Amino acid sequence: MMRQAISRNMVILSVFAIGTAATLAITNELTIGKVECNKQAALMASLNEVMPHEQHDNDLLADRLTVSDPLLGRNGHHVYRARLDGEPNGAVLEATAPDGYGGNIALIVGVDTQGKVQGVRVVPPHNETPGLGDKIETKKSDWIDGFNGLSLGNPASDGWAVKKDGGQFDSFTGATITPRAVVGAVHRALQYFDANRDAVFSTPAEAVSVESCDE
What we know:
Elements: H1 2-50, E1 64-69, E2 73-84, E3 87-100, E4 103-111, E5 117-123, H2 177-202
Antiparallel strand pairs: 1-2, 2-3, 3-4, 4-5
């Protein structure tokens, strides 16, 4: 009787374990698409903040390159091309400021075909000090909007620095490292675009699988 009870319990536990594993697998399969869609929607919202929708009629997520250049930071970064009626109308560059107070700061920089800044945004998460360095976020201040309309020649090279370093950009009270890092990263992104403008728009887009997120 004891052996029969143990065998029965083992069968029950095995069935329960198999059922649990199957449930988890099904749940994961059902939710992974939702997670990817949420990521895709958040990225698209950020791209549209620095490259307004009226400035392109193509799918930015599908018209993408991956490039490697020290001016954008270590490792690969994406470049999203904006086109209007089939013609190049701008690009959104991913860039990394490696010298933030709390480490790397990921950015996206939107530019028109002449290299004029359309917008800059910080890509969360970052480790800058709350109440000080986090003023690079639009929900904390409008500091980052100060890049709008600027370009490599406006200001001149020595103007691409915080005022403490002789440049034109404000820093934050008690926090100079963070804005200094962001200014430097945006400046380098513009240098990259200026040096690679033709290749940015002429290189074929990479194959990108864009999740269908229709309800």
